[in-house]
Specification:
Blueprint lengths: L2 H21 L7 H12 L15 H13 L3 H28 L5 H10 L11 H14 L3 H14 L4 H18 L1 H21 L5 H19 L3 H11 L1 H16 L3 H24 L11 H7 L8 H18 L7 H13 L7 E7 L4 E7 L10 H6 L12 E4 L2 E4 L7 H12 L7 H10 L9
Helix pairs in contact: 1-4, 1-5, 2-3, 4-5, 4-6, 4-16, 5-15, 6-7, 6-14, 7-8, 7-9, 8-9, 8-13, 12-13, 16-18
Amino acid sequence: MGRTSAIFILMYFVFFSLAVIQGFHQSLIDEQQMLMISYWISEGKIPYTDFFEHHIVFNNYLFAPLFWIFGKGSALIVAIHIINILFVFCSAWLVWCIAKKNNFLYPHAASIVFLAGYTGIPFAILRSESLVLLFLLLFFFFSNHLLRGIFMALLIGTTPLMIIPGIIVGSVYGIFLLRHNLRSLLFFIFGALLGGLFWLLVFFHVSFQSMYWFVFTYNNLISKIYSLPWQEVFFFTFFFTVPLIVMGAYLAWTSAREGNEYAVLCLIFVLIFILQTIFWNVQFGPWTRIKLPNALPVIGILCPIFARGNRKLLLVFSLYLLLLTMFVYTPSIEARQLKIAGIAGKLDSCVIDDAIISIKPDDWSGRVLIELFREPNQFFWTNFYTFKYTNITAVSSSVPDEILLCRNGVSRKDIVCSQEMLRNIQKDCDSLFTSSSLYVYTRSLIFGNDSVLRVS
């Protein structure tokens, strides 16, 4: 075994281990709400009609059956995060396969770059960006034109952000096929139609008018509320995505000049995505900013291109990505997600049957969030300013008679367990207060936002 091979094996071991640790330590900020959407779908409720949601919910349909298997207890949380970890490993393998398929020199370096950065963090696959990345990688992984058409249609329908990039890339690919073989183009179009038919079957009972209002109109209305200062957008963008995009785009450009089809389609996708994001930032405020996880699909499809680069430079670049990832997401072997699962299991026995409990640490406010859901439109923790701003009415499930549990107000009428059990749960919640990442403190120093500092 050569020295380079030994280095690759060591780096694979380190990054795989980090993915497992982070998979049970990190919790995506929207994960709990997404789980609730999946739960309501598993109960037969119709999106946009029976409950409020302002995203495309295909990913929630995929996870709804997990509630039939694991119920709504702690086992579900563990299962979700195991799936997240497996998704990262599968995506890294697809990156390696695509680099190998295109005869790039160092496919292992490409998958290591993927694992070293944000793309290697087990973000909840419940997010649409993760599914977009998966469909993109599968589109380039398969050579069968029918399958490529199916995955392109799945890509376009997963999130509105992919409609324009997906249509343009699909059209360019269709032109490539037309120049060589009309039969291949027809298979690709037929696959796209099959993918479109799949979307119609998934959403056949959903009101298109309601979906359009919530996904497009509502998001545009609230974009001003959630807009960030431009200096914060640049802070996110410069360190986290620009180095990856610039280096990947340069390598893709050199490959495209040599006639590599993957590099050409990759460059077109990246260019359209960036131009679209800039337009939306200017039009609606810096909300859909060029940062992760929004840029996850762009970074993911650029990773195979890194296999063209200098091997030593790629190893150094991987270390840079690793340090950057540690800066933002400090890993911990305490497996916080397993602790959360245990607390959620205890709390499930403390509330009445029709109240659904979900727990997560909030690294921004320094609290442990207890999210209690009763009816689909009664979000215990929802920011009701957004509802007020868009004239949406919702009824809060909180009442004046509350108890303070894990630094959260919870309705007393919902609690049925003993005071001793509540005290034990409070101790468990307090044990989740660990040191926050260096990024949180740096961000607060730059922007003067003391609210993100952890409460001591």
